[in-house]
Design brief:
This protein is α+β, with helices and mostly antiparallel strands. It has 38 helices and 41 strands. The strands form twelve sheets. Strands 14, 15, 16, 17, 18, 19 and 24 form a seven-stranded mixed β-sheet that branches. A hairpin with a 2-residue loop joins strand 38 (1028-1035) and strand 39 (1038-1046). The structure holds one RNA strand of 86 nucleotides.
Amino acid sequence: MTETASPNPSSTTPAHRYNAALANAIEPKWQKLWLDAGVHHRPNPGERGFDASRPKFYVLDMFPYPSGAGLHVGHPEGYTATDILGRYKKMAGHNVLHVMGWDAFGLPAEQHAINTGEHPATFTRGTIDTFRRQLQRFGFAYDWSREVATIDEAFYRWTQWIFLKLYGSWFDPWQKKARPIAELIGELENGDLRIASDGELVHVGRTAKTLNALGGEPGTARRWHELSKDEQRATIDDQRLAFVGEQTVNWCPKLGTVLANEEVIDGRSERGSHPVFRKPLKQWMLRITAYADRLLEGLETVDWPEDTRSKQRHWIGKSEGAEVDFALDIDTDDPEIDADLPPALRVFTTRPDTIFGATFMVIAPEHPVVDAVLRTPRPQTPVEELRAYAEKARNTADVDRQAAKEKTGVFTGLHAINPVTGDRVPVYVADYVLMGYGYGAIMAVPAHDERDFAFAEKFGLAIRDVVYPVAISAMAYYAANATSDETGDEGWLPTLADMLGYVTSNDLTPKDFEHALTHVRKNRRGEKPVPEERQELVGASPADLADTERWRGAVRGQWIDTIESLFGRSFETMRETFASGAYYARQGQPYDGNGYAANSTATVEGSTVLLDGMPTSKAKATITDWLDQTGIGRRRTNFKLRDWLFSRQRYWGEPFPIVFTENGDHYPIDADALPVKLPDIADYEPAVSEDPQPLLAKATDWVRTTAGEAGCSALDPATVVYRETNTMPGWAGSCWYYLRYADPHNDAALVSKEAQAYWLGDRGVDLYIGGSEHAVLHLLYARFWHMVLYDLGYVDSPEPFRKLFHQGLITAFSFQRPDKTLAPNDTAEEVAEGQYVEKGTGVKLTPVVAKMSKTLKNVVNPDDIIAEFGADTFRLYEMYMGPLEASKPWNTRDIMGLHRFLQRLWRLVIDEETGEPRLASAADAGVDKQLHRTIAKVENDIERLSFNTAIAAMIELVNLATTKAGSVPIFTQQQARRVAATLAPFAPHTADELHERLGGVDHVGQQVQTLYNSAWPKYDEGQLVDDEVEIAVQLAGKVKARITVPADADAKKLEAIALEHPEIKPLLEGKTVRKVIAVPGRLVNIVAN
RNA sequence: GGGCCCGUGGCGGAAUCGGCAGACGCGGCGGACUUAAAAUCCGCUUGGGAGAAAUCUCAGUGAGGGUUCGAGUCCCUCCGGGCCCA
């Protein structure tokens, strides 16, 4: 029995009332007991106490970054949800894996170190202790023996190990999976794979034809032994899933760090306003792009919120199109210049059907051809202007370059040949083309792309129509096919208007134009009988001919207006416009939608391509096939997804298990030499320098070592080597921590085969709950790593997280001034009911929902709430606020309602004066029935994560029992035990305390220390249905009466009862019953008039 | 600008499959207990109208339209808010 001193100074409060004091006495007691007894510890398969008969359930929280500010009320929301589900699943017979850990590398600790000199490790250990203490105060049923932190050497040793696996693997595009590099070398050595001149791997017999200009035929690809040692090394390094790549970054020399785009404002750092330069930097990259298709396909197999799947799809950004080579027209006698420039510019386009409209080309400022032209300029090249432009553009962030309204650019002096039209087209440099997408070069089709159009207008370049929507297509057709008697004066206008009306209202396509024009002409000459024709014209049967006439007149009038607005009343203007393909130039805006191809016919080297009149989708397929056959281009899928920049110039992250030799070659550290420990450094201030200098470079003794010291057996032990000084980004540890939970103390493997097979199985984590802010990055990166580990045989599930759920944001009420700015909560004063003004200024304030923030003074500290109400009340409140996925405002006032619920429930079972159980000797039938229903509802609601309604059901039970009880006991001992078990997942401390006071025997007669080890109560299906139900009788959808009928009454019986009902019968007098809809158990609806 | 999601009492929300809108909690109002207050307990609480009352009646889920015997729920247009991409 718990010793609870009278918690209230007032003598009138009973000694054993459930209140904050009682909660704060019993909760720590149970928490200590659970921890000491290891109640929530789950053994692994093969360990003592493992129960193989139970199915597994792996429920996972997104582990927190332990910030110095401590726990926020948002944290326990998701954690309470998983705790309820985990506790419920345990009681329902599962082995539940539920662990907490710490995502503990990251910038804030490093910033703290800069400010205070305190080692990030010391600081972080402290914040972890705070977080752990705060979380334990909630009574979450975590298996704390499995706790991990990403900063533990025993943990990041395996993060480094996975990096070595990425480094030591390549993506086989034919098998579509990762394989060890050794197997790649094997296939190169045995001749199955060769190396094309552009570095691509060619699989003998399996590769599609490569392009004429750049690729070369498989026959010309070189064999492995024909490569020099350096070439062999480069070939292999180009295939690794972890590779060194060059990436343009925002470098701020003054701050000594690389900045994110968001941290750069107008070329200066947000912090301190120092100049920022865009600088190419060699860094570690992870080849996530190889998995683009797998990452996309896998989304169809998981139970995730549609919104999140959609975000990932967009992020991956798959687009189908073609790549095409535009030969450069170099036209020079100087072989040196020829050699410096590539033979062609390769472009990617999602609209190959518009290639006939490609009247110029644009390359990115970073494109290698720009530097080549600057070295060996053409006669027309404006060298200084080009140099200056490229320089400036390279120092502007991609987002800003794309956002700029005014198009800028410089002519390179180069021309290329449009491969289908044979036209010589100018090549420009412009900043709206990015090096990162496609090949950093585009074919510009001004008539069908907004940015190309703007550029063409500004630089006076040709704009040529190649796609028309159907109506414009019909105009073009008529312009070319009008008879001479129609073209004079006004004869053509009504004819064309009728044709357009006919075409559009009947959804005709260009192949019908000839027929349509004939039809319209015949009609106008009055050669055909009128009625049928006009009905056909309208596409529906009009009431009479007059209507048709009016309708037709209106349509013709509208089209005449449209034509006139485009071409005036001049047929010649229209003819000329379409003959020269200048419709969009005349319109002043491009058309980027689908339609029908026009002006798109050519014969190249004896092969004819004819797209005219084809719908866009067919035109795309046709031109792509043609490009493929002629070797000018080929089908190509492109992705928006970029390879993952994996290097950071920070201190507080995982060191790379990589060393470099004097000549810059990189070598891996041996797996058994891991971890590569983070060295201590004297200070954390970034170096001020012209070149990015990672902080670890300060640890000079650590950086310069020997292969033997470093544990790199690929080199002679005496070789001098330099360690990689970048560290891994914050995402690294979070990519795989959920695997470590399954086997956290294993020092022979990141997770044992058996533990992984049991806890993850072939479906992965059963439920993952966390914020939607991680919809893309974390959840994409983790899937990528998991897929690599799957390919290499370390995990059995193709996807890591079977079911994903995002809890909503907890917001807060705040106050808005009339000018829409927000006022801190402590400045608001309530002057009347619901009326607020700002203190001092007297400005009227409107309550609004806003994010919690320190400046608004609306942040709630969980510790304070627990002190005031107890953890169980807190848990219930957060779950009761609304649907788990919804964003919802915190309102401290509402908490009292949940506290009262526990208090009332407690009072039903426990005598407030004595603390002893108060039990009825016989069960009340109504209460018993409600208890069965409550258990059923709670069970159903937990399964669908609808905790708010589950709690409402328990409150209803308590309300009913309270009403029925009056002042005498209402629950029998058995009922009380069932109630406690039902409450246990939600309010585990209160439930266990009730359980203990009820004798420590659960509802199935087991003596258990805690309800966590009890069973989820069963309910009687028979108790869920009533013998009789009250249903509504509606007359034309309005409820007119309620009837009580047997629950099993069928539709026929319901109808009979309803029609004879004394309240209904009079209402039907003099009316005919047209229809009766009877839904058993729901209602009867009578339609009568 | 494009895509997605959401608008229900004074507030948070419920209505799980197209079937009686507003469960449950907060707040408010009234009552019991109390010298009093707090706490606790009981009752009422979408709006309008009628009635002494039980109750009856009309309207009602951002606005307008549509599908349906029946729409908070499905479809279209618009307004407002949020998120993502540009």
